[in-house]
């Protein structure tokens, strides 16, 4: 084992010092900086000094930004494809909620032929084209079970598990980028009587279409963009949805004056303070949508942009759900008190029968379950402790991409900053070696 550790240190130094000279010659061979097949103890010193965990949009953006600076990286992905959440855990009718120019990843725009709000399938095609364009080839089927900084060797040790028990691998890298995102795991709330309810209860990650709920009474729990859109989808398939709204929520038109509300907001913020822009948005929303309080949708005291800026809470961009609430096709309910075999009792005392329940209760980060010995992420919610725009950089070469609560635009900002910082560190280390 001492011999292996000595070889590890030599191979890390040699590879790290000479990578720029050989990266084009060994582009296809250099897949690992160092790895140990746990069952065979086989070492391989070739490969990139940067590991990225997660092959979603954030991981792809990070890899592309590094590639632009001549730095190779390797993405570790637990599933067998790019962007597995978009592939398998989203509903059929999903489109990007923001115009495509605010959702493109660094250095490659969406095709001009695509609509302003691309479909799920179109976005996935873009991601696959993005990976191909930059020559990004993730290692699929690699679930990271632990990542910890080795203070002796000054390197990150990243252990993965493959589909088979014997496929355990340990990677060693100089820089580690966490790109597993804010939506790695489902959030399932604790509801009294949930196990007693006899109808199907599914999270939106398992919801595909309202076609199987035709003619049924369906309760949707959660009034974010997903909950609102699922309700609309259920209406379109002749189901009878009800929406649980426990907290306040900002609902804005998706477009104003023929322009996207988001794009208009970004333009206005160049000229006016956020408080003034919020007042404008609320005035226009009232004129276009009416008083949402009349339908059980109370607005927060803070404006939509201030709320997003301070707490990362995204306003709902209405695409037709509110009209269905107004005409009574979607009922708004208060919070749930308890469930019974086929009914729901609400906190206001009302009891109604339902055939199914859909939980649009969001997702959470899973970083604390595998990142060890780091103080960068909050144990409770798995998000960086430092708020945006300062949450992207940790200690000992650790970075986070895609934890900004600002969608794909925030991930792109993180990816560019991370690549620039790694390049700076790389050059500083090379200068030290020369000296």
TrEMBL record:
Keywords (A to Z) from UniProt: Auxin biosynthesis, FAD, Flavoprotein, Monooxygenase, NADP, Oxidoreductase
Pfam annotation, one family: FMO-like
Reactions this protein catalyses: indole-3-pyruvate + NADPH + O2 + H(+) = (indol-3-yl)acetate + CO2 + NADP(+) + H2O
The protein's enzyme class: oxidoreductase
Pathway: Plant hormone metabolism; auxin biosynthesis
Cofactor: FAD
EC number: 1.-.-.-
One Gene Ontology molecular-function label: indole-3-pyruvate monooxygenase activity
NADP listed as a keyword: yes
InterPro entries listed in its UniProt record: Auxin_biosynth/cation_transpt, FAD/NAD-bd_sf, Flavin_mOase-like
Domain of life: Eukaryota
Gene3D superfamilies: FAD/NAD(P)-binding domain
GO BP terms in the entry: auxin biosynthetic process
Entry keyword RNA-binding: no
Cited PANTHER family: FLAVIN-BINDING MONOOXYGENASE-LIKE PROTEIN (AFU_ORTHOLOGUE AFUA_4G09220) (PTHR43539), INDOLE-3-PYRUVATE MONOOXYGENASE YUCCA2 (PTHR43539:SF36)
Sequence similarity: Belongs to the FMO family.
Protein name: Flavin-containing monooxygenase
């Amino acid at each position: 084992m001492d011999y292996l550790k000595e070889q590890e240190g030599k191979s890390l130094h040699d590879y790290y010092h000479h990578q720029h000279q050989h990266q084009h010659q060994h582009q296809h061979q250099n897949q690992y900086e160092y790895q140990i097949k746990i069952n065979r103890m086989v070492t391989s010193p070739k490969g990139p000094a940067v590991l990225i965990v997660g092959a979603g949009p954030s991981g792809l953006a990070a890899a592309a930004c590094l590639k632009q600076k001549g730095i190779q990286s390797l993405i570790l992905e637990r599933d067998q494809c790019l962007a597995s959440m978009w592939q398998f855990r989203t509903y059929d009718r999903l489109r990007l909620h923001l115009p495509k120019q605010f959702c493109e990843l660094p250095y490659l725009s969406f095709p001009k032929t695509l609509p302003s709000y691309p479909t799920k399938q179109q976005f996935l095609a873009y991601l696959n084209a993005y990976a191909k364009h930059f020559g990004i080839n993730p290692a699929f089927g690699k679930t990271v079970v632990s990542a910890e900084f080795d203070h002796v060797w000054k390197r990150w040790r990243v252990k993965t598990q493959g589909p088979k028990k014997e496929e355990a691998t340990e990677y060693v890298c100089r820089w580690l980028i966490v790109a597993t995102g804010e939506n790695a795991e489902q959030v399932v709330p604790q509801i009294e009587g949930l196990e007693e309810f006899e109808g199907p209860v599914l999270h939106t990650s398992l919801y595909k279409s309202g076609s199987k709920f035709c003619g049924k009474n369906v309760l949707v729990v959660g009034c974010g963009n997903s909950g609102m859109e699922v309700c609309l989808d259920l209406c379109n398939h002749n189901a009878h949805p009800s929406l649980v709204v426990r907290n306040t929520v900002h609902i804005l038109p998706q477009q104003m004056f023929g322009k996207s509300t988001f794009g208009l907001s970004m333009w206005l913020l160049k000229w006016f303070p956020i408080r003034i822009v919020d007042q404008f948005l609320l005035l226009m929303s009232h004129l276009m949508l009416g008083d949402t309080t009349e339908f059980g949708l109370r607005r927060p005291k803070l404006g939509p942009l201030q709320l997003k800026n301070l707490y990362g809470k995204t306003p709902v961009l209405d695409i037709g759900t509110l009209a269905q609430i107004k005409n009574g096709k979607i009922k708004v309910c208060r919070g749930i008190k308890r469930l019974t075999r086929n009914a729901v009792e609400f906190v206001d005392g009302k009891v109604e029968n339902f055939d199914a329940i859909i939980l649009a209760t969001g997702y959470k980060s899973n970083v604390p379950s595998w990142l060890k010995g780091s103080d960068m992420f909050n144990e409770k919610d798995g998000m960086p402790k430092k708020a945006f725009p300062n949450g992207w950089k940790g200690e000992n070469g650790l970075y986070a991409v895609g934890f900004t609560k600002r969608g794909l635009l925030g991930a792109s900002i993180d990816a560019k900053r991370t690549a620039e910082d790694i390049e700076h560190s790389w050059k500083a280390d090379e200068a030290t070696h020369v000296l």
